[in-house]
Design goal:
The chain has 370 residues and is an alpha/beta fold. The chain has two domains: 138 residues, Cytidine Deaminase, domain 2 (3-Layer(aba) Sandwich), CATH 3.40.140.10; 224 residues, Dihydrofolate Reductase, subunit A (3-Layer(aba) Sandwich). The chain is 31% helix and 22% strand. It has 13 helices and 16 strands. The strands form three sheets. A nine-stranded mixed sheet has the order 11-10-9-8-12-6-13-16-15, with helices on both faces. α3 runs parallel beside α4 and α12 packs across α13. The longest helix is centred in the first third of the chain and has 16 residues. It is globular, with a radius of gyration of 22 Å. The chain starts with a helix and ends with a strand.
Length: 370
């Protein structure tokens, strides 16, 4: 791996990262076409998977490069597809372009590809280098990989706590984080396919669950509420705005029919999944149902109870804990970290990878090994 390969792959990853949350059910891939001799390289084309998943990044980058792709190197953040779907395989476009070398970050675990794309390129006489910035690509493509290998989307859990470890106060809505941290949360939303809360949060906080950053207001993801008995009220903003912002309620198969009809009249989509022994939604089944709809990346902003249930079911892939500067200093507060999540952290199932200071708040992100 050369330094130039790393630099250009870094650009490909940055391009792909930009469209995270917009390309599902396909991964958001970045591609860069580089021409010229070593030390005098120049970028002649670049592309990123388009919203909705088509066109793919590679043909877009090659089309920009045109004739300059002959003898050039293509850097792409995921193995090029080699199967016929709604569009021809990217390997066909690469071979036809005259590119003589392809550099990839990650092999695609999709069984329709899974090394076949690399093999076809080599058989066509194209030199192939793999694994460049592979760890970084595995993070950005975590949603795609998790959906293909585990049958569910990846899940990024977010919790906020006071300096002394509480997420809520008795009989009041607790304001924990400041505007800089809030902006970071909205950026996570913009890069997610769906945002998830439980019925407790939906009823207590009446959240909008939209992206409200300047220039990104059109990036609001699908809003998903877990509600085992359909207790969500028609007066909530989530229901009232469902015709403008896609909203899905996941419930159990025994949920009342009249409540389903009421929600449908507001434009809310309702799906039923299996329940657990206690009659609550089977969380694994709920995530599988989202994956079947093409969802690859979920950001969960539910409270501590939902967070701990997800941790107990081993469904948390990334966890960000934002700690505010103020303490609750009162009895009866709701701890942010429940026992199952605490065990995941203590056992090293979720390892810290980065810490950011967001104004007066501190955000620590943990992740499952990729």
């Amino acid at each position: 791996m050369s330094g130039a390969d790393s630099r250009f792959m870094g650009l490909a990853l940055a391009l792909g990262h930009r469209n995270l949350g917009r390309t599902w059910p396909n991964p958001s891939v970045g591609a860069v076409v580089v021409a010229g001799e070593a030390g005098a390289e120049r970028i002649v084309g670049q592309g990123v998977t388009a919203p909705g998943g088509r066109p793919h990044a590679e043909p877009l980058a090659l089309a920009m490069a045109g004739a300059a792709s002959h003898g050039a190197t293509l850097h792409v953040s995921l193995e090029p597809c080699s199967h016929h779907g709604r569009t021809p395989p990217c390997t066909d476009a690469i071979i036809a372009s005259g590119v003589t070398r392809v550099v990839t970050a990650l092999e695609d675990p999709d069984p329709r590809v899974a090394g076949r794309g690399h093999r076809l390129l080599r058989e066509a006489g194209i030199a192939v280098t793999t694994g460049v910035l592979g760890a970084e690509a595995a993070r950005d493509h975590r949603g795609h990989v998790t959906r293909v290998t585990k049958g569910r989307p990846s899940l990024h859990l977010k919790l906020a706590q006071t300096r002394d470890g509480f997420a809520g106060a008795p009989a009041e809505r607790l304001r924990i984080t400041g505007p800089i941290a809030d902006g970071a949360v909205h950026l996570w939303r913009a890069h997610a396919d769906a945002i998830l809360v439980g019925i407790g949060t939906a009823r207590a906080d009446d959240p909008a669950l939209t992206v409200r950053l300047p220039g990104l207001t059109d990036r609001s993801p699908l809003r998903v509420v877990l509600d085992s008995s359909l207790r969500i009220l028609p007066s909530t903003y989530l229901v009232r705005s469902a015709r403008d912002i896609p909203t899905l309620v996941v419930t159990t198969r025994r949920a009342p029919v009249h409540a389903k009809r009421m929600l449908a009249s507001f434009g809310v989509e309702v799906i039923g999944v299996d329940s657990d022994r206690a009659g609550r939604i089977d969380l694994s089944a709920a995530l599988r149902a989202l994956a079947e709809r093409g969802i690859t990346r979920v950001c969960c902003e539910g409270g501590p109870h939902l967070a701990d249930a997800l941790a107990a079911a081993d469904l948390v892939d990334v966890f960000t804990l934002i700690t505010g500067p103020n303490a609750l200093n009162g009895a009866g507060g709701l701890p942010a970290i429940g026992p199952a999540l605490a065990d995941r952290l203590a056992n090293g199932d979720l390892k810290p990878i980065e810490t950011h200071h967001l104004g007066p708040d501190q955000a620590v992100t943990y992740e499952r090994s990729v």
